[in-house]
Design goal:
Layout: E1 2-9, H1 13-24, E2 29-32, H2 41-44, E3 54-55, E4 58-59, H3 63-74, H4 97-111, E5 114-116, E6 120-127, E7 130-138, E8 141-152, H5 158-162, E9 167-169, E10 184-187, H6 191-200, E11 217-220, H7 222-230, E12 241-245, E13 252-254, H8 267-291, E14 299-302, E15 313-315, H9 323-328, E16 335-339, E17 343-346, E18 353-356, E19 364-367, E20 379-381, H10 390-396, H11 399-418, H12 428-437
Parallel strand pairs: 1-2, 1-8, 2-5, 8-20
Antiparallel strand pairs: 3-4, 6-7, 7-8, 9-15, 10-13, 10-14, 11-12, 12-13, 16-19, 17-18
Helix pairs in contact: 1-4, 1-11, 11-12
Bound molecules: flavin-adenine dinucleotide (FAD).
Flavin-adenine dinucleotide is lined by residues 9-15, 32-35, 40-42, 45, 47, 49-51, 120-121, 153-156, 158, 181, 183, 255, 308-310, 383-384, 397-399, 402.
């Protein structure tokens, strides 16, 4: 029987930070991951840049998340935190996907975190309302793994759902989730041609007023999309071209495909989404080459290992974070992290992006209780599936925020093990002082 202090289920950016934090706080830690990679959506599905570490000029996500960016930057694998060309977030952080992948592998070796790859969690072991273990299936067959505290970082809340936790899917009116998107990278793109067109057609783009045509970020070409649609030469459910420059020359990662009305936690739907995503990439590439300046001689450099999921289950916790909490910037006595990304809803059934733009001074506090699945002991949830409504989640789901949630959940798990209490009974002031001493920003004021 294999028993650990902490098992982190899923090695996305949130699970990685959870595992690092748990290990650094003294827990014997195992990561269980379905793929053979570390980094989840940010590696497997090519999502970049990170958005956002800042609220105006104030850096509100620090700790392990920022340490990873510094390491990437030192190795010239990230540009650091820079101004958002499309003026949506306070900052963006472009990085090299291969670099992030490698750094995570370096870190697990340095920190002494055990990893079990190619292992899918398909069941849980309960003692009454207490989660004591997980069951995985892999090339060795079926395995049982036990831990004092288990962290669900699967993005979809698989472990919580298996343990019988309540959850909501998507938005409240019809349970539809934000679409899935298959990103892809194009090389040999002529940036000069794109910038020239942008300078001459500013109104065709969402752009920062003071954009200096340096780092390239594009949300627009609205007229080109419209023209191609009117000629029946483009039919993706998208109103714009959206992409950011990769940190390597003449390469951009395109966020244009949109697979609607399928559930990311239904195996048949997910399979359809993978098929549909590939067809949409073909159409998007043809459209870019035919209509968009700078793409005539471009080519597909890479496509992801899996379609990107923006939203699926929201696990119901001891508290549910809402849009009002964000707008009113409610303070929480049990705050363990800050978020500062605006609400950004890619329409679950249309072409648009519903943006709740915000200016500086918009950081909001994140209560610990959203990491505690209601009614279940010894289980923490982190990442995009934490207890939040569709709207609040449309802010909280981004990379830097889920990394901060990861650090909080991993620290809480290790402290709970050390002090022989359940995560629910953990002294919140101890958790907060530990997080602060390890670099995490947890309060709006101070
Ligand atoms: C198309 C798209 C564009 C985005 N754009 C941005 C952006 O520009 N900037 C930004 O900051 N954020 C962006 N995001 C949001 C952000 O990337 C994700 O919300 C975030 O990466 C989620 O991290 P996570 O760790 O919670 O989950 P994931 O990254 O999904 O990690 C979950 C991990 O768990 C594993 N797993 C799942 N189920 C099981 C199981 N049953 N057993 C074992 N392992 C399992 C998975 O393989 C995966 O490695 C975007 C997301 C998408 C989909």
């Amino acid at each position: 029987m294999k028993k650990y202090d902490v098992i982190v289920c899923g090695a996305g950016t949130s699970g990685m930070n959870a595992a690092i934090a748990a290990r650094r706080n003294g827990a014997r830690t195992l990561i269980v991951e379905a793929s053979g990679l570390l980094g989840g959506t940010n590696v497997i599905s090519l999502v970049s840049p990170f958005m956002t570490f800042h609220d105006g000029n104030r850096q509100v996500i620090k700790g392990i998340a920022d340490e990873i960016i510094s390491r990437l930057k030192e190795q010239k694998l990230a540009l650091g935190h820079i101004k958002d060309p499309i003026d949506f977030a306070s900052s963006i952080t472009p990085y090299d996907v291969e670099g992030l992948k490698q750094i995570y592998f370096d870190i697990v070796e340095e920190e002494g975190i055990e990893c079990l790859f190619h292992s899918f969690i398909y069941d849980v072991i309960m003692e009454d309302d207490k989660l004591v273990g997980i069951e995985v299936v892999n090339k060795s067959g079926k395995m049982q793994l036990f831990a004092d505290v288990i962290i669900d970082a699967t993005g979809d809340g698989d472990v919580c759902a298996l343990a019988g936790a309540e959850f909501i899917m998507g938005r409240s009116k019809d349970n539809k989730s934000q679409p899935m998107t298959m990103l892809f990278t194009m090389g040999n793109v002529n940036f000069d041609e794109i910038k020239e067109y942008m300078k001459n057609n500013r109104n065709d783009f969402v752009l920062a007023d003071d954009y200096d045509f340096g780092y390239l970020g594009v949300s627009g070409f609205f007229s080109k999309v419209k023209e191609a649609m009117e000629k029946n030469e483009f039919d993706l459910p998208r109103d714009r071209v959206l992409f950011f420059e990769d940190i390597h020359n003449n390469q951009v990662t395109i966020n244009m495909t949109r697979v609607l009305n399928l559930s990311a936690v239904d195996a048949w739907d997910l399979s359809k989404a993978e098929m549909e995503g590939r067809q949409q990439i073909k159409k998007a590439v043809k459209f870019l080459k035919d209509y968009i300046p700078g793409f005539k001689d471009s080519y597909v450099v890479r496509t992801p290992n899996a379609i990107g999921k923006r939203e699926s289950r929201h696990i119901i916790g001891d508290y549910i974070l809402t849009e009002e909490d964000l707008h009113e910037k409610r303070e929480f006595a049990d705050s363990i992290a800050l978020g500062a990304f605006p609400i950004d809803i890619h329409s679950p059934d249309g072409k648009s992006i519903l943006e709740h733009r915000t200016s500086a001074n918009n950081a909001y506090e994140v209560p610990y209780r959203i990491l505690l699945p209601k009614g279940i002991e010894n289980l923490l949830v982190t990442g995009r599936c934490v207890s939040s409504t569709h709207e609040a989640n449309a802010s909280l789901r981004v990379g830097p925020s889920v990394m901060a949630l990861g650090q909080a959940s991993g620290t809480a798990a290790a402290l709970a093990v050390k002090h022989k209490v359940t995560p629910r009974d953990l002294d919140i002031t101890l958790l907060q002082s530990t997080l602060r001493s390890q670099g995490q920003v947890i309060k709006k004021n101070g």
